[in-house]
Amino acid sequence: MLLPSLVIYEVYRHLAKHRGRTIADRFVSQALHCRVVPLDETIALAAANVSLDHGPRLPDSACHSERPLPRPPRRHHPQR
After folding, report:
1. What's the CA gap between 75 and 57, in Å, rounded?
2. Domain residue spans in the chain?
3. Tens digit of pLDDT for each residue in 13-55?
4. What is the value of pTM for the model shown?
5. Could you write out the three-class secondary structure of 48-78?
6. What separation in angstroms does the CA of 34 have from each of 2, 37, 41?
7. Angle between helices 58-65 and 41-54 (to 10 degrees)
8. CA 27, CA 51: separation in Å to the nearest integer?
9. CA–CA separation, 18 vs 29, rounded Å?
């Protein structure tokens, strides 16, 4: 799973403010199991276009503008 670095910031900040730092720290420990993607200029511009076209704010539009990874090949499981 891809996770933009900005989402870590936004979710941690929100959880720490509303639920406490312990819950926020639990989120981070789980979030770091994902592939964290830095918000570079390409993603920032793509996120801006997603936001203009569809209306989500920056963290949501950054998630939707990520370049998809190629899917792994499907494994064939013979019937038993």
Report:
1. 38
2. 2-65
3. 999 999 999 999 999 999 999 999 888 888 778 877 877 887 7
4. 0.58
5. HHHHHHHCCCHHHHHHHHCCCCCCCCCCCCC
6. 6, 9, 21
7. 110
8. 26
9. 18
